[in-house]
Amino acid sequence: MTRDLTKGSIFKNLLVMSVPTMIGFSAQMVYDLVDIFWIGKISSDAIAGVTVFTTIFWVIEALNEIIGVSSISLISQAFGRKDIDETKVAIEQTITFKFIMAALAAIILSIFLEPIMSLFGEADLVNNGLEYGYIRMFFLPIMFSSYSVNTALRCIGDSYTPMYIMIFASIFNIVLDPIMMFETVPLLNIPGFNLGIFGAAVATIISQSIAFFMGFYILFSGRKGIKPSLKGLFRLNYHMDKELMTIGLPNGIEVFLRNISNTLVLGFVALYGNSAIAANGIAGRIFGFAFIPLIGFSMGGSTVVGQSLGANMVERSEKTTKIASLVSSSFMIIFTVVVVFFGNNIMSLFTQDPEVIKHGTEFLIYGSFGLVFLGYYFGMTTAFSGSGYNFPIFVSSIVSRWGVQIPILFIAISIFELPIIWVWLSYVFGDLTETFIGIIFYRQGKWKLKRVK
């Protein structure tokens, strides 16, 4: 069912929208960790290859971010205004436009993938990354479309259906992983397909495809009170598509440049060898768990803010943002305490390579110190995403990554040749800068006046 978030307790609405999102993304992160767990059984070089591919792969996530962020404000504000026809058109165009963009991105990436990967290591690393990556790349339209369906459901107040879909897909992927990867399935001792790293990618794209078709059927069946048209998927709406490309453009550029900076950071990590790359990959997946509450409250809060602004309830939007910021920071404090005391034990679950464990533990400990501030920043972004005023996200990210983190890395690593700890510390300086700039924009209050139609 849909939910009117302009009424009732703000905190309850925030939890109703955020907690299912967090649970769904938690399930998704579990299968990401299961992937890296089984890949680690092959070799540390296999983890390194997948890490390099994934870092490059997510550069094109900028396209998903542009349209996805635009769709949050367009769908939620239209629904908040009780404009059902506009809500349906926004949903239809989001799915279609994002599918087209993903197909074009996959074609372009296929041309440059191998030469880019060759910059990070020798043949074994490149081959491992390509073996895992090519099939993931060509199923990018399905992946993006699945995100669109889940976003549409959340924007009309249904956070539970995406949660159930993500949990089901994650469990399916977890079961499928060892079956596809190994000749004999561990623990069960039954025959598998013995596809190695390629099998892990196959398991992922099968699970993502199932998730998409489940969500698509539920959304377009009209069960949720909104019934988009299948015909609407086969025609473009110039006005709506222009809005989809422009409202979230700052976010898209921000994500693109952020992921490019992540690629450059990985280049610095690569200077310390494949063990450092593998450690970066494992610790990065673990950090993904830290971001689950941030993503959950950001997405849930953005919907509450969007519907509230659509109904011209500015004070309600402001209260939502403040609650999201405080709760997100609290989660980050808990995560930081856990990794400080148990980082080594957590890393040991994924690899027995002592060098990988050492580097990964350092990354978890040092890298976590900026997350408390970043949690507060993510809460504030609900105001920007819900209103459609995404310029602050763009500025804070560009300055923090390209004006602070990358220069620190260049000076510390290239000039002074300091140890790898400075790679991990560079994230902390970037997080602090991003939060500080976000606070400045939030207090200016321009987001309170922004509306999309």
UniProtKB/TrEMBL annotation:
GO molecular function, one term: antiporter activity
Keywords of this entry: Antiport, Cell membrane, Ion transport, Membrane, Transmembrane, Transmembrane helix, Transport
InterPro entries membership: MATE_fam (IPR002528), MATE_MdtK (IPR050222), MdtK-like (IPR048279)
Residues passing through the membrane, by range: 12-31, 51-75, 95-113, 133-153, 165-185, 197-220, 264-283, 289-311, 323-343, 363-379, 391-415, 421-442
Protein location: Cell membrane
Main location per the UniProt record: membrane
Pfam hit, one: MatE
Bilayer topology term: Multi-pass membrane protein
Domain of life: Bacteria
GO-annotated cellular components: plasma membrane
One GO-annotated biological process of the protein: monoatomic ion transport
UniProt name for this protein: Multidrug-efflux transporter
